[in-house]
Amino acid sequence: MRIPVLREVADVAPAVPAPKSARYWVVPVVRAVIALIAAAVITFTRDAHTAQFGLIVFGVFAVLEGAVLVLSSLRTLADRLTRKLFLVQGAIGVLAGVLALALSGSGLGLYLFVVSVWAALTGFLELYSGLRSRTKDGAARDWIVTGALTAVLALTFLLIPSDAILAIGLFGAWAVIVGVFQAIGGASLRASARGATAEHNVGSGS
Asked: How far apart are CA 69 and CA 85, in angstroms?
């Protein structure tokens, strides 16, 4: 009679996130820090908003965020397709950042082009990752919002006049919004992971 009872308990026991998923909260927090640092640099150097400045700031941001996505995807994402999508997203970021840094003296046209292409590709990938994972991953909502905001940035860059101050300011505004949102999302994921761990410990009697 003990086996059916154990099976019944297992059936009603709350699902506990896999270890990789439970550690994912660190990723949005690190991404938030990178975005907010980029926003702070743009905000506090208003007199230097040239195309070269924009390319350098974006290049450093894109390389750092892309590296974080590549390195963290292998360690924190359990779903295979989601992991591949974020690896591609990270690689695009690194390539765009390296291009921006290597050609930082190429002018406003390159800045608008690189940021637009990066935002369109990475925004779509993150939005798609969120939509396909919205019923099975706690981070899906954050991916959807971040992806949508990034896609909007790409569209905005296509529509704005060719003005360095405006373009760099818009990227800074995007970085602030996304950075704050990701910081909140990371804190929420950490709280959820702790709650799931506590429930698991109580349920297992430890």
From this structure: 10
DSSP state string for 31-65:
HHHHHHHHHHHHHT-GGG--HHHHHHHHHHHHHHH
Give pLDDT, residue 8: 40
Alpha-helical regions (H) of the chain: 2-12, 19-22, 26-43, 51-76, 80-102, 108-132, 140-159, 164-204
Q: Are 153 and 167 in contact (CB under 8 A)?
A: no
CB-side neighbour CA atoms (13 Å) of 146 = 27
SS3 180: helix
CA distances for 7 relative to 2, 14, 61, 200, angstroms: 9, 13, 50, 16
- Rounded Cα–Cα distance for residues 13 and 110 (Å): 55
Structural tokens at position 134: 């919205």
Q: Please tell me the distance from the alpha carbon of residue 123 to that of residue 146, in angstroms, as a whole number.
A: 7
The number of beta carbons lying within 10 Å of the beta carbon of residue 19 is 10
**For 63-88, how does the pLDDT look when each residue is reduced to its tens digit (9 = 90+)?**
999 999 999 888 888 888 999 999 99
pTM over 0.90: no
